Amino acid sequence: MHIRLRRLAEYALVATVGGVGYYTLETLWRGWSHWSMALAGGLCLLLYYPLCTGRARPQLLLALIGAAIITAIEFCVGMIVNVALGLDVWDYSALPLNLWGQISLLYSALWFLLCIPMTWLCRSLRRHVFTTGQ
User: Is-above-0.90 flag for pTM?
Assistant: First the structure.
């Protein structure tokens, strides 16, 4: 397959895995989700994937960067979906150390922990799906 098509297929799969994974994880965590979370999850994994599959970086650094990426996307999506559109998909106002109810330090810590298996997932996708047959 042409290298650009392979790369497009790779990133389409990564976005799909991120979107379905985030939506599923949230549904398991709180019993429901919103379609915007699938888009956010896809974007999160798209941004995290090249960091995990590029040059070697320490796992804790990757998890820290990943948590920052997820928190930033959650904030942006929250400001659009919850504040601007008023859809009230989530509200962290009752949690300590939150910013306008859109992000919380508690969830940032959970995103840090989530990035540890996500690093393995990203590397496994690259190794087992996208480097065979080249």
Answer: yes
| Burial track 103-127 (b if 16+ CB lie within 10 A, e otherwise) | bbeebbeebbebbeebbebbeebbe
Q: Token digits for 49?
A: 């994937």
Domain of residue 37: give its range.
3-129
Task: Report which secondary-structure segment, H or E, holds 84.
Answer: none
pLDDT digits (tens, 9 = 90+) for 74-98: 999 999 999 999 999 999 999 999 9
Task: Using the structure block, give the residue that is written with the tokens 């047959």.
Answer: 133
Residue 117 has pLDDT above 60, yes or no: yes
* Number of domains observed in the structure of the chain: 1
**Is residue 23 one of the residues assigned to a domain?**
yes
